Amino acid sequence: MLTFNSYNLRIDQSGSKFLDLELTLTYHSHKVVLVYHLAEGKAQVNRQRLKGSDQIKYEMYDAIKTVAKVAQNWQQLEAALLKQGIQTHYKYLSGTDNVQGISFSKGITKFKGSEIDRSLSYGKLKQLIEFNKQHAQRQHIASVNDITLPNRNSFIDTHGASLLGKLLEPDYDQDTPTPFELLRTKRKLKKGRRI
After folding, report:
1. Are 138 and 98 members of one domain?
2. Which of 104, 131, 120 is nearest to 42 (CA)?
């Protein structure tokens, strides 16, 4: 049973009270979710009980999410989705080649990416694909660096010191001041301070 409190009543321009039904239903739906601990998000939805377009929407959601995690470009994403029977359609800005949005269809049912889930909009998918591409490049570079680094023992010269140690040795004596220290002392003398 719906209960109405003073927060749900509004006053119109003529001064009479009326019930804001939208606010009332929103209030009660949030209350039901809190009381009965209903699932939030798409992860906990009972997919076996879904029928019709909702079932197709969740099938598309699952397929796109799994493919988008590994796709490094749009062609890979489209090919992997096509194997699962999902076609990709792009919406272009009128008169240009700039992609404005993305839609997915399975059979005769078609959904915009953001209608399936907000994380499946064109902008979010584009960011995810770019991240996957950069991540793969970083892994490739790291694997190449691991292979091409020579053995540590090959750098040891006849005296037993490593090449890196010789390169890091200072060329000047420790007692002579560095150019920075000379400049600092010169400034202090100019200002009349003690060194």
Report:
1. yes
2. 120
Q: Which DSSP symbol is given to 152?
A: G
pLDDT tens sequence across 80-134: 999 999 999 999 998 888 999 999 999 999 999 999 988 999 999 999 999 999 9
Considering the domain architecture, whether residues 71 and 121 belong to the same structural domain is answered as yes
Interior angle at CA 42, CA 91 and CA 132, nearest 5: 55
Distance from C-alpha of 16 to C-alpha of 146, rounded to nearest angstrom: 77
| Number of domains forming the structure of the chain | 2
pTM here is 0.56
Residues facing 10 on adjacent strands: 18
10 and 60 both lie in a single domain? no
- How many separate helices (H) and strands (E) can be counted in the chain? 7, 5
| Residue-wise pLDDT tens digits, 22-47 | 667 777 777 777 776 666 667 777 88
Residues 92 and 99 sit within 8 Å (Cβ to Cβ): yes
d(CA 115, CA 55) in angstroms, rounded, equals 14
Distance from the first to the final alpha carbon of the chain: 86
Say how far apart CA 31 and CA 23 lie, in whole Å.
12
Two tokens, residue 2: 């719906």
